[in-house]
Amino acid sequence: MKRVDDFRLHLGNKDYVPIMVGGMGVDISTSELALEVCRLGGIGHISDAMVQDVSDRKFDTSFVKEKTKTYKFNINNMDKAVVQFDLARLAEATLLHVGKTMEAKRGDGLIFVNCMEKLTMNSPRETLRTRLVAALDAGIDGITMSAGLHLGSFALIADHPRFRDAKLGIIVSSVRALQLFLRKISRLDRLPDFVIVEGPLAGGHLGFGLDWAEYDLHTIMDEIQAFLRAENLQIPLIAAGGIFTGSDAVGFLEKGAGGVQVATRFTMTHECGLPDDVKQEYIRATEADIIVNGVSPTGYPMRMLKNTPAIGSGIRPGCESYGYLLDATGNCSYINSYNREVLANPDSKTIVVMDKTCLCTHMRNFNCWTCGHTTYRLKDTTHQLDDGQYQILSAEHVFKDYQFSTDNQVALPPREEVAVA
Ligand SMILES: Cc1cc2nc3c(=O)[nH]c(=O)nc-3n(C[C@H](O)[C@H](O)[C@H](O)COP(=O)(O)O)c2cc1C
């Protein structure tokens, strides 16, 4: 019986343990998590979502404070078009976040950054170019372009000296999305180094409609493999979404996938950036607690726990401090929903907004509990301790379980004793 360790992901001229841990913004896939995966020979992702805020928390910078000060005059204005990112400061924050992570890199694996292109930041092309260039300048091993795939993203960095040496990949959920992207980049003479095929069970935003349950990752992988074969293209495919055991992963590797991308099982590790109480919420969840809804202003369905505090919250849009989801015209669908409720309830002190959420503020505060569909199985991978809390695992334990387990087994960790005060 095969295990994941019998396979290798071939990228460039090197081989890696074929396990990627996916990007989880905002700082849920921390540098610590990505570094640990890299140390173990796999590929870890950090995320550049809300990088200025992440930098402030980690490196004591004050990017957010500065931006808030600059745009303070606009806080009560419903129109946010004036709020812009200072590109030099954005680059500085990215250089810090990525650069410090790369300085700490050990082991035979790689560190990639997940770049969510739906973070349009009131100037989609320029802010994306700045983020990509700064990540390359900071020495990142590779970039994964995700949610909102900007068909022109490769062209934005085509003149960067590292354009051909850094590993560049994309996330797609259909053969059609891949075909469109390849057509768009054909004149650059540079294919993606890897393509992550994300199915409907993943966490975060989904590349499907609310009919996500009608799709299945194996079928999409088969379609994409058939297309690549017909076109004589050799691009490693990385299967993602709902891969819970080493055997699930082997099921894809045996059919020709180059690797797998996983995330949900790492949300209950010490290295994951979620606060401890939120980790416990994830582990406690039942299948009925996990929903897919349309509250994200990105327009993509998002999977989350149904008791997530972000749902229904009517906080004032935080664009003067954040503003990552402002589109090219300076708008965000949460602003419209919020303004609608304020106008409809002029005397109310508490505003409730059900259809959209202020994703920047809530992701920043870990109040939007996005998760993968298999989250309800996390409790089977650990012990419930005497105080009722679930034991948190090390990323090494989870990584090695994927790497070495067979027969759909999940290895339980040695049980920890609860310290008596
Ligand atoms: C908490 C959480 C946050 C996520 N955030 C992002 C993100 O910011 N960008 C992205 O491309 N994918 C995101 N994802 C998707 C993962 O990177 C990954 O592709 C997917 O969840 C893998 O499936 P699994 O969680 O079933 O293992 C997120 C997933 C989780 C669980």
TrEMBL record:
InterPro entries: Aldolase_TIM, Dihydroorotate_DH_CS, NMO. GO terms for biological process: 'de novo' pyrimidine nucleobase biosynthetic process. Gene3D superfamilies: Aldolase class I. Pfam families: NMO (PF03060). It comes from the Bacteria. GO terms for molecular function: nitronate monooxygenase activity; oxidoreductase activity, acting on the CH-CH group of donors. Keywords: Flavoprotein, FMN, Monooxygenase, Oxidoreductase. PROSITE patterns: DHODEHASE_2. PANTHER family: 2-NITROPROPANE DIOXYGENASE (PTHR32332). This is Nitronate monooxygenase.
